[in-house]
Design brief:
Largest sheet: none
Strand content: under 5%
Structural class: mainly alpha
Distance between the termini: 82 Å
Number of helices: 9
Length: 213
């Protein structure tokens, strides 16, 4: 065997692991795509009644708002307030379960409750409120980054700063919670579900006056 043959054989041998790792990454990526597509198909099924019913409900509540405010408050903000209000109750309930009943480490109990409520909020806002048709994995990744930034900026940063300057702890937490809500809604509407129009109910489509609002 010549020196060139030996070098060629060594190069072929060293290329095999790279091809194997590349094919493994490609298979994993394809599996994630299939799972995401199946979830998209399930959540975006037009035959499902829940998104249409929810859209009609929040549109009805939106029409009860005074006209001046109605022009400035999107219908999806009402849906967001309903969903994330219930997510807060879920967060507190799991905190009670993990910490008070199961006696888990407090930071772990807080983190798990926060994560469960976050997943609940993402799924329902995507499916019922914004009715987005975007890629689930990409939207979930953006949402996770948003939750992490919200946690650092408001839960740790703002509430701690307010408490440090003398604001009562509960009041500081309430102020930071209001800021969290506005921040997360803006993040969902303009980044996580970007390009998704405000959902229009059947009643709005048949009512020209509501379409002009």
């Amino acid at each position: 065997m010549t020196t060139q043959d030996a070098a060629r054989a060594a190069a072929q041998f060293s290329a095999r692991p790279r091809r194997t790792s590349t094919s493994a990454r490609s298979a994993a990526s394809s599996a994630r795509e299939r799972i995401s597509d199946r979830l998209d198909e399930r959540f975006n099924d037009p035959s499902r009644r829940a998104p249409r019913i929810f859209s009609r409900f929040i549109s009805h509540l939106h029409r009860l708002i005074p006209r001046l405010l109605r022009k400035r408050i999107p219908a999806t903000f009402i849906g967001y307030a309903l969903i994330n209000g219930s997510a807060f109750l879920i967060d507190v309930s799991f905190l009670w379960l993990f910490y008070d009943r199961l006696h888990w480490f407090y930071p772990l109990a807080v983190t798990l409750g926060y994560a469960i409520a976050g997943v609940y909020s993402l799924v329902l806002n995507r499916w019922l409120n914004f009715q987005s048709r975007g890629h689930l994995v990409a939207q979930g990744s953006r949402y996770a980054l948003g939750l992490a930034s919200q946690y650092v900026i408001f839960i740790v940063g703002l509430s701690s700063y307010l408490h440090w300057i003398g604001v009562h702890a509960e009041l500081a937490r309430l102020i930071s919670a209001c800021c969290e809500g506005l921040y997360l809604y803006a993040l969902m509407r303009f980044w996580v579900f970007r390009g998704t129009p405000e959902p229009v109910s059947d009643d709005d489509e048949s009512d020209p006056s509501s379409a002009r609002l």
